[in-house]
Amino acid sequence: MRYSAIEDGYMVYVEKNERIMDTLTEFCLGMDVQNAQLSGIGAVKGIELGAYDVASKEYIRQHFEDTWELVSYQGNVTLKDGRPFIHAHVTISDHSMRTRGGHLFEATVSAVGEFFLRRVDSSVHRKLDEDIGLPTWCTTDHKE
Amino acid sequence: MRYSAIEDGYMVYVEKNERIMDTLTEFCLGMDVQNAQLSGIGAVKGIELGAYDVASKEYIRQHFEDTWELVSYQGNVTLKDGRPFIHAHVTISDHSMRTRGGHLFEATVSAVGEFFLRRVDSSVHRKLDEDIGLPTWCTTDHKE
Amino acid sequence: MRYSAIEDGYMVYVEKNERIMDTLTEFCLGMDVQNAQLSGIGAVKGIELGAYDVASKEYIRQHFEDTWELVSYQGNVTLKDGRPFIHAHVTISDHSMRTRGGHLFEATVSAVGEFFLRRVDSSVHRKLDEDIGLPTWCTTDHKE
Question: What is the mean pLDDT of each run of 10 residues along chain A (144 residues)?
Fold first, then answer.
């Protein structure tokens, strides 16, 4: 992976055959990024998507082996068990421009991976919400 | 809803069973947010999408009752009749990772709603454009 | 096109019948924008999408003549041959809320085009990567 530091974060280039989630998480660890906003585009393969089933509280998973355009990647970095954790959702498109989307477990760059990571000066962390079945944002303020 | 203030805005967590557009608009009102950039991900239900028909100058509407992943939410806050107004477009995906998208009228959080609201130091407001049939951005500068 | 300057960039309104990629590229040239993050929503027509074929190293192209909602536009500005170059991916939706997506070659605004351009204080440029067949990001740092 390659990167350039910018005023409030980094432009991150995930290289061919690198795994996006692993690479970006390792980068956050190395750079001590605790909270951040992530977005990006590219072309990926070996994509593992998920859809959360609120009844069973489990993710339904689907695998896409071939190359798809990464048309939208939006995510956030928060602390989970004291370590940076990335939650990201994506839209992907195939050679007929048809799209699929969901929660991103992992995907490997097949051509390019161009990301913006914008640091956020906060300390939002995740804690398991029993009702929802997922670790959710713990913030500083609450409003009815 | 819960939130944490960040340098240039807020990380906003819209809670289960809260309506996204209502909640974020109320938040902007309470925090005196006049111009902002919004983005986010989550899982939603009771989704009302629209597609603008440029000929009839009316929105075609479609309702999605079940839970879908909110794979992309992009929007902006501007002033309309002196009040903060959110214009947002979304992509959603179902349990087969199939996607739908459009203008977002409203959606209710079914699991989580994780948003970044970045304040913008501007005063872009909306005024009805008769030709288009929609209130469009009034900006300070114009270029041919 | 119309715009308002903001602290770290511009809110850019691409007007009806203006071409998005041409207009935004010209704007970057005029404003001396070398690196930036772009995002936006709107309604577009005459859309030329692409999917990169990693084997043949060529884009497969598809044209969409009618109006579609621009539900997601994500891109970046970097220097290519010394000039600002926009790389953008989009998701579009039709009147049935069905979506398509891909690399955006060009699209013309059919109703509105609302964009955020955030300047980035960097000098990432593109150089042809023979292996990939595309001009890719040259950054300042590299990590294994």
Answer: 96 98 98 98 98 97 98 98 97 98 98 98 96 96 80
Contact C72 B62 (CB under 8 A): no
> Exposure pattern of C66-104 as b/e (b: 16+ CB <10 Å)?
ebbbbbbbbbbbbbeeeebbbbbbbbbbbbebbbbbbbb
Nearest to A112 among C101, C121, C132 (CB): C132
Cβ distance B123 to C4 less than 8 Å, yes or no, reads yes
CA dist C41 and C39 (Å) reads: 7
ipTM (interface pTM): 0.97
Residues of chain B neighbouring A49 (CB-CB closer than 8 A): 93, 97
Short-list A40, A65, A67, CA closest to C53: A67
For the stretch B42-90, pLDDT in tens is: 999 999 999 999 999 999 999 999 999 999 999 999 999 999 999 999 9
Nearest Cβ partner of B71 from A62, A91, A140?
A91
Of the candidates B76, A40, A87, the one whose C-alpha atom is nearest the C-alpha of residue C87 is A40
How confident is chain C (144 residues) per 10-residue block, as mean pLDDT?
A: 96 98 98 98 98 97 98 98 97 98 98 98 96 96 80
Helices of type H across chain A = 20-31
